[in-house]
Amino acid sequence: MNEPLHIVGGGMAGSEAAWQAANMGVDVVIHEMRPNIKTFAHRTGDLAEMVCSNSFRSDDDEQNAVGLLHWEMRAAGGLIMEMADRHRLPAGGALAVDREPFARAVTERLVSHPKITVQADEITKIPESGQWIFATGPLTSEGLGQAIARETGSDALAFFDAIAPIVHFDSIDMSRAWMQSRYDKGDSEAERTAYLNCPMDKDTYEAFIDALIAADKTEFHDGEDAPYFDGCLPIEVMAERGRETLRHGPMKPVGLTNPHQPEIKPHAVVQLRRDNALGTLYNIVGFQTKMKYGPQASVFRMIPGLEDARFARLGGIHRNTFLNSPTLLDDRLRLRARPNIRFAGQITGVEGYVESAAMGLVAGRLAAAGMLGRTLPPVPQDSAMGALIHHITGGADAKTFQPMNVNFGLFRPVDGLKGGRRGRRDRYKAYTDRAKAAWQGWLEHVRHGAELAV
Questions:
Q1: CB neighbour burial string for 151-175, b if at least 16 within 10 angstroms, e if fewer
Q2: Do 101 and 178 sit in the same domain of this protein?
Q3: How far is the C-alpha of 156 from the C-alpha of 147, rounded, in Å?
Q4: Residue 12 assigned as binding residue
Q5: Max CA pair span of the chain
Q6: CATH code, 133
């Protein structure tokens, strides 16, 4: 075997795919267009740069599907999870990451790997030969996007992904704000005080909603209109759906007590999460936005405690492209018409850092096994990895296909368990126990190089 595995894109999926394939003994070339060609959202040339948030979400591997995905990636020796754990920040029950040291560490590990080469170049065509994984993510370049559309015979779908603003901590008025995780969740004091909270009374909340709705928004270019992903809606879009929507979403006031006014229950609460290890930067949780910069700063300074806020980064909006994977990809993430081409990450229609890295992990292992002359069984559907793959490669309705986070709704039911909210805890534990056993079994096939029919 003289030809390397080519991976296009050095984000979460591409980085994890390269790590997994190289550790199985395959030479890998990562093609990353940054820093030579920049994007709207990226700030550096580092691999695995985090652009939308610094959170990998829940780390609970018994009661949360994304926490289960964390567990499966750790069990597989995932680089993304190893570096996330190493650069972890207090965030209650969530896994938040100091994003710049995290990306630098991922980059250093990949660049120093003897079987990995990183090339700063842009791929704009679908190659005729060789083994390739395309993991170009939500900001696939225009040239490559057009090439993919020509190859697949259909237009790539698209939606707009919004970025939340980041605030300098020393500009926040802590006489009005306080530190507390919802329901004091966490095993340590740092975890129980991982979020910064800004309370609103009813009048302030109503004025804030009015300002959100009235603010000037970023205009879409001709032909760019597309549906949003519901898991990442701009805050003003949520406000337009109903005045109480935010109070039941990112601004819900539950599980919190304001120590400055413990006898008064806030009408709404804006939460901020630490964005770096120094604790100098905080991002506003759930406040993705498409407001223009000037109005955006004015509206967010209406939040009690943020009247004098200085923004390290204002929110923004960018186009996100993804394949209609149920019609195009097989259960090994291969393009049905060109099995030497695989796709991984957000371009396949998964949503989120963790889900993207997970699809990279699977794609890297499957590609490497094939190049080494081995065959592996399909990823088990009862694992979190398999549930995602099943959804994007056939479980979802192709006519209405939209990006999806991992969730227990993608898992096959466990017989004999009670449905509804009362049975949820036992049901989720059954899902995670079953998934762990299935995933460990699949990993054993990989480790021992079992040759099983496809």
A1: ebeeebbbbbbbbbbbbebebbeee
A2: no
A3: 10
A4: yes
A5: 71
A6: 3.50.50.60
Number of domains in the chain: 2
pLDDT by residue for the chain (454 residues), tens only, comes to 579 999 999 999 999 999 999 999 999 999 998 877 767 666 777 999 998 789 999 999 999 999 999 999 999 999 999 999 999 999 999 999 999 999 999 999 999 999 999 999 999 899 999 999 999 987 788 788 888 888 887 665 666 767 789 999 999 999 999 999 999 998 899 999 999 999 999 999 999 999 999 999 987 655 555 667 767 789 999 999 999 999 999 999 999 999 999 999 999 999 999 988 888 889 999 999 989 999 999 999 999 999 999 998 898 876 778 899 999 999 999 999 999 999 999 999 998 999 999 999 999 999 999 999 998 899 999 999 999 999 999 888 888 788 889 999 899 888 888 766 678 899 999 999 999 999 999 999 878 764 433 3
The answer to whether 373 is annotated as binding is: no
454 in a domain, yes or no? no
The pTM of the whole model exceeds 0.85: no
Residue 421: other Cβ atoms inside 10 A: 7
Domain around 386: 5-156+323-448
Q: Is 13 annotated as a binding residue?
A: yes
Q: Is 10 annotated as a binding residue?
A: yes
Distance from first CA to last CA of the chain, Å, rounded? 21
Contacts of 241 (CB under 8 A, 6+ apart): none
Has 14 been labeled as part of a binding site?
A: yes
Give yes or no: residues 169 and 314 share one domain: yes
